[in-house]
Amino acid sequence: MRKFVISAVATLVVLAGTTYARAAVRNAANTNASVVVSARTIPGLGKVLVNAQGRTLYMFVPDKQKKVTCVKACAAIWPPLKAAKGEKLTAKGGVASKLLSLVKNPAGGYVVAYNKWPLYTYLPDTQPGQATGQAINSAGGLWYVLSTKGVVIKKKPK
Question: 38 and 27 share a domain?
Fold first, then answer.
């Protein structure tokens, strides 16, 4: 009986250690992951926010610097810049890290926000540096780019 108890305890210690090690690896992977928000100069608009691929990021007026309102069909055209909880947000190229945050997405998960505005890309922008979604009324509201200071830029591109 004593051998059985010792063996059972040893097995539990090994299993607990393995579970802890797996959790540590998972957490380390999450902390190494990063969502990058950078800036790019777009003619007629100035220096605006872009994602890691150089695609222009937009804000949606109905979000009112509070919450994600672009979901379902809207999000199919205007995909949100998603991040996992605890994922590192990296600011580059003049973007202020203190203005980056996460906002809960009603569709699940989180969306990266800048100056409290949830950020989205626009499907018709197929190349870095395009801003075809700027100042258009789509999916129930207006869409604009943001400056690196977090200011909404409302002018139309040239």
Answer: no
